[in-house]
Amino acid sequence: RAKRDPSRPVMVFRPEMHVAALRQLQIEADLPQAARRGQMRLVYQPIVDLQSGVVGGYEALLRWQHPQLGTVSPGEFVPLAEELEMISDLGSFVLEEACRTFQSVSGGVTAGPDAPAAPALQVNVSTRQFLRPGFAQVVCRILDATGFPASRLHLEITESALILDLDEAARTLTELRALGVRIHIDDFGTGHSSLAFLHRFPVDGLKIDRAFIARLGEDQVSVKLVETVLLLARTLEVEVIAEGIETRMQRDHLTRMGCRWGQGYLFSRPLERADTLALLQADCGALAGPYG
Ligand code: C2E
Ligand code: MG
Ligand code: MG
Ligand code: MG
């Protein structure tokens, strides 16, 4: 055994480390059954027109209510689900649940030539889920099963989904576009995609990562970055959604720069299913304006 270096402090086992390790073990052990046990639910955050406040879409966000641990954040369990190769099942659950919920309200909306389009549904897709062969077929099956129109389904992928496996990404994108599903790049600006990628992989929208929005009032670099993304989007003729808008100052700044769509606590936190349904009911066929 190595002798203890007297110049270094003894590593003390703190109780909170024990708690963290136990929590991790419990999360790993329980994740596989969580959806089946009814502990997973979706909440929906409105995406609004920054000037009028009209809702153009909703982003579905997954929540895990653990009986002992309380709410476990997707930031914690989604990467784990990817590691444990459970993300495809979990992702299918999310897609089906979200499409079913939205179809239950807006399915009856008649789309006459003058009727405003019903709001879009944005669903997050993890990189592994997206790159797994057959993903587009899964989406197709869920659209068939729920009757939800493909054109209202917008999938959010991150830049890594496009970069990790170019051939599979190209194939999947082509298949999804053939279905009529739209693609948005989530957390745009934090990954490693380049102009060349955006050219090679046509997408329908970019979501500016909230880190840039948060720093809008604070540093010029963030302002320049956001301006650049807006210009890029105009050039490519794709939509832009600003994430994580918390203040009026941020909203006004974005509006002045010509950004139309945004989401964030300033407008609404993610809403429970019942509240979303109520909003959808009031909105559908009335004031909803689409994007993309
Ligand atoms: P994301 O897709 O970038 O989602 C935006 C996150 O920002 C959400 O956190 C949302 O609740 C939060 N947010 C919205 N507005 C504000 C704001 O004004 N201020 C701040 N500080 N935060 C705001 P959430 O729900 O914890 O989700 C975290 C991440 O987990 C998501 O980031 C997404 O990458 C992932 N995720 C969530 N649901 C799913 C899912 O169903 N499938 C997959 N694959 N990933 C998911
Ligand atoms: Mg997202
Ligand atoms: Mg995001
Ligand atoms: Mg994010």
Automatic annotation (TrEMBL):
EAL domain span: 24-284
Protein name as catalogued: Diguanylate cyclase/phosphodiesterase with PAS/PAC and GAF sensor(S)
Origin species: Deinococcus aerolatus
Segment of the intact protein contained: 783 to 1074 of 1074
